[in-house]
Amino acid sequence: xxxxxxxxxxxxxxxxxLMKIGYLALRREMEELLRPVGLTHAQWSVLAVIRHFxxxxxxxxxxxxxxxxxxxxxxxxxxxxxxxxxxxDNPEDGRSKLLYLTEKGRKLAEETExxxxxxxxxxxxxxxxxxxxxxxxxxxxxxxxxxxxx
Length: 150
Known about the structure:
Helix content is 61%, strand content 10%. The chain is mainly alpha-helical and 150 residues long. It has helices spanning 15-34, 41-52, 58-65, 69-81, 103-112, 115-126, 129-145; strands spanning 85-90, 93-101. The radius of gyration is 19 Å and the shape is elongated. The chain has two domains: 31-112, Orthogonal Bundle (Arc Repressor Mutant, subunit A); 114-144. The chain has seven helices and two strands, in the order ααααββααα.
């Protein structure tokens, strides 16, 4: 039986749960910034990646976004319908398309690219410079432990 007067102890959970809570908190902050411009977090991520890698293919996008092919396809279809991206034939592979930002997509990517810095500043404000550097180093190390390799 749960004691209704007892509060949940967030800091007692397993490391995976703590990381999820941290990630969700960061994502909520980002989504609040994105909502007024009509973007989801996934759409914003796609804009950023295509801006950085014009001509990327959907299959190259999958591991970067860490989502499966059907989700990537659905996401790209929606973004093409909104006029953010365009697909061009891949001269090296007739089955594949190359992804590019439209002018509308490029403008939106440029206008929102600083959102990540705004959220990161909130994290930095809660930590010392040394703590932030350590957190970043440890997250990179942890990501390497579980990195999927082909």
